[in-house]
Amino acid sequence: xxxxxxxxxxxxxxxxxxxxxxxxxxxxxxxxxxxxxxxxxxxxxxxxxxxxxxxxxxxxxxxxxxxxxxxxxxxxxxxxx
Length: 81
Description:
Elements: E1 11-15, H1 17-20, H2 31-41, H3 47-62, E2 73-77
Antiparallel strand pairs: 1-2
């Protein structure tokens, strides 16, 4: 069993490599830098909004290129207390 303690309003994102390995027609990868930038830009949003915005960023990046790997993403946000 793994225990993770989140601070109030803390966010936990779990993702598969399919997100960072998503690529454009020219072969450029979405990568961890873009992933972290997208997460940071949405740090005050709800878990659903973070998920929606990150998936939008991935789709905007690929410009409708087919995916070569599955994409798994779980976003959890702890309510502030």
